[in-house]
Amino acid sequence: MATDKEELNYGAANIQILEGLEAVRKRPGMYIGSTSERGLHHLVWEIVDNSIDEALAGFCSHIEVEILKDDIISVTDNGRGMPVDIHPKTGKSAVDTIFTVLHAGGKFDGSNYKVSGGLHGVGASVVNALSEWLEVRVRRNGHEYYEKFAYGKSLGDLADLGPTQTAETGSKVTFKADSTIFTETTVYNYETLRQRIQQLAFLNKGLRITIRDKRQDDIVENTYCYEGGVIEYVNYLNENKGKIHDQVIYCEQELNRVTVEIAMQYTDAYTKNIYSFTNNIHTPEGGTHEDGFRLALSRIINSYAKENKLFKNEDNFQQEDTLEGLTAIVSIKHPNPQFEGQTKTKLGNSEVRQITSKIFGEAFERFLLENPSQAKAILEKVALAAHARLAAKKAREATRRKSPLESFGSSKLADCRSKDAAKCELYLVEGDSAGGSAKSGRNSEFQAILPLRGKVLNVEKCRLDKALENKEILSMIQAIGTGIHDDFNISKARYHKIVIMTDADVDGDHICILLLTYFFRFMPELITEGYIYIAKPPLFKLQAGKRVEYAYSDEEKDMLLAQMGERTSIQRYKGLGEMDASQLWETTMDPETRTLTRVTLDDAIEADKDFAMLMGDEVDPRKNFIKMNAQYAKLDV
Q1: Active site residue: 49, 64, 147, 430, which one?
Q2: What phi and psi, each to the nearest 5 degrees, are found at residue 320?
Q3: Are 146 and 161 in contact (CB under 8 A)?
Q4: How confident is the prediction for the chain on average, in pLDDT?
Q5: Domain residues of the chain, as ranges?
Q6: How high is the pLDDT of residue 609?
């Protein structure tokens, strides 16, 4: 409880007023989510989004993003160029106002930008606030203008550098992130930027976007431009999958100032992939635009099936039946989007549900009527999904675990004693031999062991009902406790660390990939929430006298060998089963000494494409991947 003295000392002088951009530097996470690598990359998107807005308004056809030496970012567009005249309220140039005043931008009155990704007007000023320095160059009115900032503050008024030699217009923003803010890293990941740049090109047909990495002598560059827009996006996502129908179903229409653009195609896969966007912002949690699409899809398919007497009984297809194997892009442009939550992961505008449903429903119905052979193929796919759903419903009941100590028939789970899921760990161990060592060496208070026999079923090639017939998968589902697929509930997870522990060889890597495929397809939340880990067992044991060291790579082995001398004995572990309980604990299971790699999912869209390529039925894409990447493989002898 506060003392009387403390209460007396609390007055107006204790109220801190943060002026200008000080609030952004004081609490950066409020504006960009975090100051981790994700937040660092968010700075780039804030500037790129401004250029995209120029493209959406019809004034920009090319955007260039460059990573310069020392991880400096430069974004250039050929739009109209930022306004340079004096702002009537601030008394400063419009450029200065845009980069130093929060909620200052041309997106609020609706006259300059019909739609915009960021309607908060904080993007440019936040990037400026969180940068060591930032430069702006504007080509407008036949002149070039320049202004530089440091830590969010202008170093001088906007300067007119004189007439330009061409009539080109546009803006160029160059900045260096502040390392005192981004203490984790200031190094940009080219692949992260490239993937998002490609996505933006798909979502904005005809817009050319170039990304270059100039940090090394060998410049890496990619340019993307898709005249087909989201149609080409669906083709790209499905290139490693078998298609149920050749033609991508597409519609684009504006209704009540909302533009709806949808492309979709069914494949022979068993999972759905619906990706929704609002003003180019990915909404992974969906929202009213995705709801409208799903409702129309189910309604039209059921209507078509009834009219053509394709039902064998009176039951309608359920929505989940109509989604199996579907790849769809649902992209809308809205003048005033309302998102649920600060992260913009779900669209909340209620009117969008009916607009999307009407536009897509009419287009989809027309497609089915005009393409009877493709319509028949789609309905056959949906009917098979309905049959599998009924079979899976029966099999799913067996996955609902009643007690942590309940016998699972074929399961050999050695559970832990703790009931605190946040502290508990489940080791998925390759083979009975390694499982026995792990059971003997573990800390049974918080570590559970589940040995797996042989290679786990490749779920990329089977439906849920078939997966639930697999004893190893059934054992994992029952042990983890969350349920599976649509029944999944992460709050019921009995372990917050699920560790894949396989041999350090090709077979072990394959089993690891099979398990990751299973988690990605049937329990993806375990990955997104950071519950899945991969253990790293040692490859070598080196012993000289009483000194024992473990090496996790050939390079580490050679380094230790040089330190320990020629009389050092070397044991090459061919598998986990060659380690006794104490060795397995010391090297791979002891929280004080082990090495675990957390499995993350930065881009589910790209991950889906990669899993389909690596684990699906299409052979040629996998062959091409191996040919292209064989040079990076290492041979253990």
Answers
A1: 430
A2: -65, -25
A3: yes
A4: 86
A5: 22-224, 230-396, 402-537+581-601, 540-572
A6: 65
